[in-house]
Amino acid sequence: MLKRLVTFVSFLFLFFVSCKTKKHQPADTGASGTIHISVDEAFQPIIEEQIQVFESAYPKAKIIAHYKPEAECWQDLLNDSTRMIIVTKKVTLDESRYFFDSTGIYTKSELLARDAVALVVNRNAPDSVFTKEDVQALLMGKSKLPYKLVFDGVKATSSVRYAIDSILGGKMFNTAVITAAKNSKEVVEYIAENPGYIGFVGVSWIGNPEDVDQLEMLKKVRIAWLPCDSCDEAGTFTKPWQEEILTKRYPYSREIYYVLKENHAGLGKSFVNFMNSDRGQLIFRRGYLVPGRRIYIMRETQLKLVKPVTQ
Fold it and tell me: Kind of pairing, strands 148-151 and 197-202?
């Protein structure tokens, strides 16, 4: 009897150990399945287009994007509630080690494209040309210009972080002069109705002249001019056009990175490969951003008409 009991207990032990050590099989492949990703909402227009084209190429694949402030995207990655985020910051080596210690998976992070923070004003606003000193003074609440500012939130967003880190050099802005909208779309809509405000927004929300909705909105708002960072002629101002972002003449340019936490050849890697491919990079280019993985040369050309050779 004792021998049978020992055998039964041993069998149960082996059964539970084998169940515990059995590897979890991923539900997705490179061409099928469903995954959730978190995306900085500043990039919603261009990422929605990427997903639409990707899913048309892989009908069995479904990518569900959650658009939210940048800090929340990072929190999702840490909480293991998403396997990929698209943000404005690359993972450092120390951060990658930290994620590995927390989740057991190394993260991969690379450049996808470059965009810019655009300043938008109402069509009826008296000014649309600002110096960098003007912008800094406005953020600090020390400007004599008759404007207040609108952001896509007062904390945790990439536009707010850019203003603090890159425009103010690490200083905190004056929250008393800041109006917080829920997202980038609401920033543009608020500027369209309020001439006394300047909005900070990702250029993909307002800089695509082929987007019908953006063209309609540009009847109500204007993109502001800012000083050129590397122009030969002093006093030159520029806008966040594609070429100005590429050459870094526009002063408020920034990068778009993916951060992927996936240890199998799944849908996350497949979507990253698509965005890095010629097709995906052309989507960034057609969205009037600057592709980060492919070089597309912009140059002026002159065409000379010649008579055809008579046969």
Answer: parallel
